[in-house]
Amino acid sequence: MDRETFRRYGHEFVDWIADYFDQVEDYPVRSRVKPGEIMDCLPETPPAGGEPMDRIFNDFKSIIMPGITHWQHPGWFAYFPANNSPASVLAELLTAGLGAQCMIWQTSPAATELEEVVMEWLRQMTGLPAGMKGVIQDTASTATLCALLTAREKATGFESNRTGISGKLVVYASEEAHSSIDKAVKIAGYGIENLRNIAADRNFALVPGELEKAVQKDLDAGLKPACVVATLGTTSSAANDPLDEIGRICRRFNLWLHVDAAYGGTAALLEEKRAMLKGAEAIDSYVFNPHKWMLTNFDCSAYYVRDEALLTRTFEIHPEYLKTGQDAEVKNYRDWGIQLGRRFRALKLWFVIRSYGVEGLQAVIHEHLRLAALFKSWVEEDRCFELMAPVHYSLVCFRHVKEGAPEEELARLNAALLEKVNESGKVFLTHTSLKGKYAIRMAIGQRATTEKHVRQAWEIIREHSA
């Protein structure tokens, strides 16, 4: 493709994206294709010769778009948000055009130094303790794996990197913790049998007393407690584990404390939400996702550590072909995680923060919290519905109720209600289980969502519940 053809299609694609932003509400939120339907439209063998871009783009619109679930739709209330914004999309365009591989300082000094500055901005914006150092990972799952690997090395005096893991190290997390904890425990070599799922209270937060008893029991059994994972904004209900009490236990037993704030961490942009960070001085590592609730394209996960030397000692490698004359003076982020190759993710985060400013981002979070409080009030005022969990952020868990109905019938009733609501094409919600009870999740956080869309969702829910 020559330069002028590239320019022409570049303009056409940007125009299409701009129109998509305006027209996304016209699409059904959830794709309506059936399994295999997209594959049936695609040839089984690759083209022998190049095809014109017009044909490729037309196929994108006619074949691919029907199979897209629209995360940027204002009726998106499923899972958690995965926001973008015009500023972030433009930065991603520049990142793709530059095509930089940012593994070490020398391969793009601006990428490394911008990441260092932007992560310090973000630390200040969210009120994390001074001195914590940040790096951008792809997802919170990767960041949690990094935390568990570093905790493993600290607990074994870095022997497990050299000789392997003994199988006696133990990890602790709430029964409400994300499934990425289970996966990380397996990958990092602890073994899933050495993960202790600690009981949560009626508000779905980890019970510190149960954690302390579990740690002592393992010590008495000759095992070695290594790491506790606390959560701020659990996936099912957005519950907050009590960091201050958990931190005191971790300090008493010399345990690594990792905090998964993938969703809830963005709320710390607001001063009135900083109470969730009480006890943060005991945190060893912390992650939250700007790609969820901070208008930054997936993937962009902010990972912070209290002791960067422990992190880099866990991951650092020094092959001759990666040594440079500046290594002693700079950060080489290849040593801050699993990947060697790294995308220039800091650019989009920089664009977003500068485009909106701290106050603009705070206004977005404030509005989503207001809408969640409004939706919560509707649930509480309607005797046909029941609130299932405290509302700490912009997630509301609820269900339709029927007097005298057993739990099995309520689960079937609400599952059927959820499917009917989603079939409308105007909204998309998902479900979870809270203490064995089926609950519908209303996650408000999409950039384009307004009160009109939340009211429409409630009307659709009530209509189908009748």
How would you describe this protein?
- A seven-stranded mixed beta sheet has the order 2-8-7-6-5-3-4, with helices on both faces.
- The chain is 43% helix and 13% strand.
- It contains 15 helices and twelve strands.
- The protein starts with a helix and ends with a helix.
- The mean pLDDT is 96.
- The longest helix has 36 residues, at 346-381.
- The protein has a domain at 100-343: Type I PLP-dependent aspartate aminotransferase-like (Major domain) (Aspartate Aminotransferase, domain 2, 3-Layer(aba) Sandwich).
- The chain is α/β, with parallel strands linked by helices and 466 residues long.
- α8 (179-187) links the parallel β3 (169-174) and β4.
- It has helices at residues 3-23, 37-40, 53-64, 86-98, 109-126, 140-155, 159-163, 179-187, 208-220, 243-253, 290-293, 308-315, 346-381, 407-423, 451-465, and strands at 76-77, 133-137, 169-174, 195-198, 224-231, 256-260, 285-288, 301-305, 385-387, 395-400, 428-434, 437-443.
- The radius of gyration is 24 Å and the shape is globular.
